[in-house]
Amino acid sequence: MEYGAEFIFPPNDLHNHASCVVELPDGDLFAVWYSGSGEREADDVCIMGSRRHSGVWSEPFVAADTPGFPDCNPCLAVDSRGHLWLFWPTILDNHWESALLKYKISSDYSDPSRPPNWYTEKVLHVKPGVEFQEAVRNNLEKHWLREAAGRPEEEAGAILEHCRRIQSMAESKLSCRLGWMPRAHPLVLESGRLILPLYSDGFDFSIMAVTDDWGEHWSFSVPIVGAANIQPALARRKDGTIVAYMRDNGPPPKRIMVSESADGGMSWTEVSDTELPNPGSGVDVVVWENGLWALVYNDTEDGRHSLAVSLSDDEGRTWKWTRHLERDDPGSDAGSYSYPSVVQTKDGVLHVTYSFAVPKSRLHIENSGRKIYETIKHAWFDVEWVVHGGSS
Questions:
Q1: Does the pLDDT at position 371 exceed 90?
Q2: Which of 63, 53, 50, 64 is nearest to 9 (CA)?
Q3: pLDDT of 190-199, one tens digit each?
Q4: Domain map of the chain by residue range?
Q5: Proportion of the chain above pLDDT 90, given as a percent
Q6: The CATH number of domain 3-389 is 2.120.10.10
Q7: Quick check: 288 and 294 in contact, CB under 8 A?
């Protein structure tokens, strides 16, 4: 069995969150995350990066920064040409609904002693098609009505008011075109198609941005409209079906939500719940070369104090083995372990990066006014570590 873990950089008193990791063609790992003094009110937040070369993470460097604005939620992909993509949103007014989606691409990143040299940087203008409003009209209300059914009158009323607000937003061009953010890896198909999963905290649902010509043109899927299904993570079955696993941002019972596409990510089945719990936190999934699927997620309905990896041998229909990367008892001394990013490297090992935040007392750090210290943690393991050390 193989397992290892390390911090990418020492924990500090900044908010370090929402990492994404990829393997580069030479076998190095490259990770990004956002870092700053706060994610909802501060303007000093930027995208940081680090490269793991010869088993050692580099000193973090700035990977993207819009001076005077917070940059958040980065994600990475290496396309079928070997070019490296970085996607992230710039938040215009410290509200997620104002997110402006950006990306840049590099073919010059082989030198581990320096950051990538990006040859293009663009705004990805999201312009949903005419079916956007139709999908909202046809799908949104039935999902939220289902959530409101049987609840106390005041709670049901708040749920339906939320639904009406989203329906009103869908009639505004600006609301439809702003606020879209990435979280998990894009899916790169053999054809060269790149499918970028996006979500909106304003709409509380998800959509896909798709390019077949390396970003020269983008098209957008029919939205995946449910009751607060956001931050999709994608996996592809052998028959070509794409499965999206999504965070549950709605009322309880809170479960990882799922939808499927049989046409390359352009249309999606009705959103449904899985049996897996979710506390309103990001998930990630990867198809292992041995045919197993690995899902990394917070396996609670309340709190991020437990981070699990589950394995499936039937392409995500059931999850037979589970082992924990982190697990605390809930309470004031519990840590927060969240927003995993998972990738398989050429040697068949899985690598996960995730947000790691614990009370400073647990790290024996003194002389700081901030109670929580944060970093990005990196863990790696093989199949045997999960199967023989976990539960089934």
A1: no
A2: 50
A3: 999 999 999 9
A4: 3-389
A5: 92
A6: yes
A7: yes
